Amino acid sequence: MTEIAPHSTQASVAGNAYQRVREDIIFGVLLPGRKLKLDVLRERYGASVSTMREILNRLHSEKLVVAEGQKGFSVAPISVANLEEVAALRLLLECRALEQSFRAGGVEWEAGVVAAHHRLSRMEAAMASGDRAGTMDWKRYDWQFHQALIQSCGSRLLITTHSAVFDKYLRYQMLALSYRGEIAAQEHTELLNCALSRDVTRACEVLKRHVEGGVAHALATGSIGGS
Length: 227
Fold this sequence. Notes:
The protein is mainly alpha-helical.
């Protein structure tokens, strides 16, 4: 077995801690406005205070954490205005990526889209039955399906940027955009059919309805405070 160099181990610990903190913010484990105390984070995520400070500064640059000067860090708040901005940006990026992906995607891409939709549809069926035990898996599969749709767009930058924006939208889904039921599942099936038929115009229409419907649902339930 190859011995791992100390600096490699340290980088692995830092990378793992970063991913865990980021996921905990996105999936609502660390709620908006929560103070992020370095000593507490060090114990929870197994990284040094200096490493945790670097992680929080990185998450600050991603707008997931707020730096409060001498007061430290806190989880970024949520607001109606920010949700609408994130949703609009997601829609813009995803439609552009869909156009390119539909044009370039081959058999392997189609297989990936079908497989991702199958996993998502099975989880949506469980959610529809009232089973909320797999809520986090449901959103992971949602992310994977939308990523599969754009995977053949040919632009790593576009995929990466879309992923970052989708994560912010996903955070709102976990905190406020509760499951919309059969409507959302039908929209996913429509997106699958559009991908297989290469109908990008229809796909963007469905995606617009899908995203805006989620935002409207959140606003109707009054689950987001602020403006």
